[in-house]
Amino acid sequence: MALANAYxxxxxxxxMTASPAELTLMLYEGAVKFCNIAEAAIxxxxxxxxxxNIIKAQKIVDYLRQTLDMKYPVxxxxxxxxxxxxxxxxxxxxxxxxxxxxxxxxxLRSVRDTWKEVMRINREKGTV
Length: 128
Prior knowledge:
The protein has helices at residues 2-16, 20-43, 47-66, 74-95, 98-125. The chain is mostly helical.
């Protein structure tokens, strides 16, 4: 019990002290994780677990889309990506289609990896 509380406190501190860029990275990581869990649940024919985790991934993607700052031209590109992912996740959930979830996870990993690279470059420049 104490170990679980310590872990929860550690995670809470990690979130509370993270920069906006790090929080965005955590969201990408979470969405990928939930897609991975959903894929495994579909394989195991655990429909409820698949549903719950696809919904979690959808909520993260929706949050990322809702918080875009549209004054930057690149935000429109992200809006298109997030809109596509939301549509595909809904489709995956209605069909419990592992291949669609896997496709979404691939896209999310790609965006996450690009985000990590942007963070690295900004750290090297000293802008983060």
